[in-house]
Amino acid sequence: MYHPNALAGSAYAQGDGVGKDQKKAIEWFDKAAMQDHPDTLYLLACFYSGGSVTEDRKKAFALYKRAADLGNISASYEAGVLLLSGEGITEDRVKAREYFRKAADGGDNAAEKKLEEMDSYDERINAAAEKKLTEFREKAEAGDAEAQYKMGMCYIEEPDVPQDRSRAFGWFLRSAENGYADAQYRLAVMYAFGEGIQADFEKATHWYQKAAEAGNAAAQYATGIIHYEEGISGDGDLEKAFGWFLRSAENGYADAQCRVGMCCKDGIGTRQNITRSAEWFLKAAEQGIAEAQMWSGIFFIQGAGVLKDKNKGIEWYTRAAENGEPRAQNDLGVFCHSGTYVKKDEEAAGRWFLKAAEQGHPQAQHSIGSYYDNGLGGFPKDEVKAFEWFTKAAEQGNADGQQSAGHCCMYGLGTERNYRKAEYLLTLAKEQGHQDAVRDLRAMRKNGWVK
């Protein structure tokens, strides 16, 4: 027997005798879930696991678990299925096996079959893992550094081998002590992020340096970053940082190529050289680094370090924007809005502004607010959404966002009038030199809204 609340939810979910109403179905199901009735909990879980209400596998599992704990055999089976598949919840083969065993002991033949399938799968995996490890173990035990490194990688990346970062660490350490550069780099990463071992920055730095000196490009870049961050704080050597970035870049490491471009552009750790900067940005851009693609776009448009070429500039800008670079997305929005370098296109501008805004770019957030405020680019006129976006920009310290959000609070546009908040936001914008904020504050004082 099912609880009456569950039956009511089922009726609304399926439109049985009443109009289909998902909201009411969920309301009745939630009431039913408060009752510790195993069959009712199982029924609710079935609906949330892909029935007639919004699918929610996490909620379904919680209900199956409660029903299973109260003795519902079918719920034990379904809980095992979800744990085995990892759909909507964390995959856990050990717990899945426990639930299947509980269901099988209760006479569920499907659960017994699942257990047999899991046993067969585990046997195959164990055999495959042993075969893979056997390939390297003998040489690794004999002191072969490359084989030791490959043993470590098996425990991290090999799909047939159960992941075990502690074992991986042990093999990487043996390989690193034997001078294997890739293992030294992996060991440094594990110390840096506490993977399989307690985090230790000094040991991470030591192994990054060892790997860098042995020619590992990623380690050379990491060593450069360490020197760079210490140099910016005044405790390091920016010239050393640049030297490591350059060595890594010359070894083809894309992030380092971009960093060399930045150093040459800004004169950090080396003399400023825009032509050299453009060359390195282009190398990194061709390897897909979005920031380098953006700077390549800027340089081609400005003719900085390269021959001026608007079309190439826009091409690189677009590649950077499509690659997720928010500054490039915002700039393309500006170009499309103003008709600079490209044909004026408000809808395209709005699309680029929105992409950048959703990634947290403050000026783009203000622009989206303006598009909602004015109904531009296919965006409906919506003062509430405009105020929301202005506020997001303001919270990041954007002066335009502070002025616009303050203006909305001043006149009750998309929000309730709030003179104190308006004064606060407008003052922040004024302190950044925003003249519209100055005029708004004068108007507030003139009208006697603030002192």
Name the descriptors.
single chain; 451 residues; Serine Threonine Protein Phosphatase 5, Tetratricopeptide repeat
Which helices and strands occur, and which strands form pairs?
Blueprint: H1 4-14, H2 22-33, H3 38-48, H4 57-69, H5 73-85, H6 93-105, H7 109-141, H8 145-157, H9 165-177, H10 181-193, H11 201-213, H12 217-232, H13 238-250, H14 254-266, H15 274-286, H16 290-302, H17 310-322, H18 326-338, H19 346-358, H20 362-374, H21 383-395, H22 399-411, H23 419-431, H24 435-446
Helix pairs in contact: 1-2, 3-4, 4-5, 5-6, 6-7, 7-8, 8-9, 9-10, 10-11, 11-12, 12-13, 13-14, 14-15, 15-16, 16-17, 17-18, 18-19, 19-20, 20-21, 21-22, 22-23, 22-24, 23-24
Task: Give an overview of the whole structure.
By secondary structure, the chain is mainly α. Among the domains are: 4-107, Serine Threonine Protein Phosphatase 5, Tetratricopeptide repeat (Alpha Horseshoe), CATH 1.25.40.10; 390-451. Helix content is 73%, strand content 0%. The chain contains 24 helices and no strands. The protein has helices at 4-14, 22-33, 38-48, 57-69, 73-85, 93-105, 109-141, 145-157, 165-177, 181-193, 201-213, 217-232, 238-250, 254-266, 274-286, 290-302, 310-322, 326-338, 346-358, 362-374, 383-395, 399-411, 419-431, 435-446. Helix 3 (38-48) packs antiparallel against helix 4 (57-69), helix 7 (109-141) packs antiparallel against helix 8 and helix 13 (238-250) crosses helix 14 (254-266). The longest helix is centred in the first third of the chain and has 33 residues, at 109-141. It starts with a helix and ends in a 5-residue tail after the last helix.
